[in-house]
Design a protein that fits this description.
CATH architecture of the largest domain: 2-Layer Sandwich
Strand content: 25-35%
Largest sheet: 9 strands, mixed
Number of strands: 19
Mean pLDDT: 93
Shape: elongated
Helix content: 25-40%
Radius of gyration: 29 Å
CATH class of the largest domain: Alpha Beta
Number of domains: 2
Number of helices: 12
Distance between the termini: 20 Å
Length: about 500
Amino acid sequence: MALDNLQKERLKKLKNIEKLGINPYPASVKTSAGKPANRILTQDAKKLMGKKVFVAGRLRSLRPHGKITFTDLEDDSGKIQLFFSQSELPEKYDFLNNLDLGDFISAEGEIFKTRAGEITVKVSSFELLTKSLRPLPSSWYGLKDVEERYRKRYLDLLMNPEVKDVVRKRSLIVYTIRKFLIEKKGYIEVENPILQPIYGGGRARPFKTRHNTLDMDLYLRISNELYLKRLIVGGFEKVFEMGHTFRNEGMDKNHNPEFTMLETMEAYADYTDNMNLIEEMFEYVALEVFKTTKLPFQGVTIDYKRPWKRIKLADLFRKYTGISFEEIDTLEKASALAEKLGVQIHDYMTDGEILLEIFEKKCTSELIQPTFIYDYPADFYPLAKRCADNSKFVESFDIYVSGMEMGTNWSEQNDSRVLKEAWLNEKKKEKKGNKEAQKTDEDFLEALEYGIPPTSGIGPGIDRWIMTMTDSPAIADVILFPTLKPERKK
């Protein structure tokens, strides 16, 4: 039967229900005694054999057999079978003809076990809670158009229990990260502005909006970093925020323009302290949520047990390209190497930026187990402090798991004069066409001039961590409502 005809049948049943004087969309759920209902969770049912219970949920099957009908009722905890009989419901049994799969009902009755051993509610009374006007899809998980699943996530959740399981695990992972930082490490959680007059804290193109009352442009934040450091200036020593961040960039299986980022700042810490923090935190999360440090991801077992590998970027670069960073000391040499290796670059790139682009394209795919790659080219990270033994590099590290970058972190530049000079260089890059160049934030520079202690923070992308920990192949699988291209017109 065509979808339109199925909907017409449901609308016909809806009119029948209303003709009977029954409200198909009541505002509350009550027992037969007229009192508000405390419905049981289905996993508690086996403890209540022989007792009268109250259940409520969505009809997932209807199996009529003359004067008896079996149904499956589903709530957030699972399914339970209901048994309706004309002898038990002489005046209301025929009302079942008005019900469809997807409708919500409540029911009261005694718990018993069928001959097949299935725990069942023998219904003595029931009420319609919501009439569903559209039929649920008969098949969903195997749809070729994966975007349709993302677009109609509510159906994806209904038809695919694995999707719902990822959502639950995501909630536990986020809760456990907060628990670790607050209870184990003494951080406080803060909330910084999402709408910012100047976007900063990273390299990205922003989303721009306008505040009509103030008659000013604002940007959705690309990072929380500069506001967290303002709080360190203000006297806090351990702060973090976990929330949505927005970057107006390309989309693929690892990128969504709206994503969740954890960012911390800790006074009197450097980037090696934060390597320790990262590996301790994610080992803790794995053990708390999954009871093991070894988790599958796309056919490979990832082990989050400490200690993780730590490799200098220059050493890994030499391993995979055969070239030493020190040999590439001019823009011309860097450009020539990129051309030789088939790595696309842009005119505005510096030699350090080109080397980093080569590294990301040629040296990271084999970083499967959790690995810290540290000491990055200085001209790519203006907010980071330079290495004491080689000013061409900064005290910065990226985390890699399964060849995927999981977050960038560094020792913070706390000399306002050095940062101001670095931001002037960023302005030159912007004039050359770099749309992701950082902006100068004069208010932040003023804050630094009041003094900030040696400070370092972390910035892991939470969605990617959840991808790897739940064996989800794409970032859209762990975001409930990912950003999607406009729906195609049929």
